[in-house]
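seq as requested:
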Amino acid sequence: REYWGDKLKDLIKGRITGGKFGRLVVRPDSGDPATIVTQVLEILLEQFKEDVTETSTGHRLLPEYIRVIQGDGVDWESIPLILEKLDKAKIAADNVGFGSGGSLLQKLNRDTFKCAFKCAEIVVNGQPRDVFKDPITDKGKASKKGRLTLQKVEESGDLSPDDVYKPRQGEDGVPGGTGFLHYSPCRKFVTIASGKGDASKDILEFVYRNGELTKDQTLDEIRKRADIPDGPFTATVP
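struct tokens:
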């Protein structure tokens, strides 16, 4: 509402000028797909109401310069539920497109083990800024902020309990949560966020940086590192 429908509104409307055609596609994420898609479209229909039209079936249609795509939680079961909710709200189906990735693979995907790569820091005019994801509709998808170091707890000096990460408390809570210490379940390791760690004690190594492979590793090396004690890749053959 604040960005697409206010601060950047004129830029979005200007995507179609003269002989040029451009379109902003908004991608919601997390939460119940049918609810989220409907809520996002209701906001956009209100913010761009001066250009909204009505279809022959009496459904509201966004202007050509803006649409929505839903890619989270999309499968053959959820699409009809989304469209049904839109129909009840008199919102045209042409407002939204669908994308499906992990759901085409029996839902064995990065969310199975909560594995994801997220941007954590950017540099603007020479100044670093924390970047994070913290969807109100799914606390489990909150990401760590800023430059990160993974350190052994025993090598990290005095770590205050007050600095342990705490998730956002409700919609009015601090975005991204508070604290910068993220302990492993075994409490032997800690990820220190927001650039507050010691880079000289960082266990992680650069493998690929600025288009250059800085550390080459074989598949056998990776398998052995990821294996469990006496697992399939390290167990001795009788």
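The longest helix spans residues 33-47.
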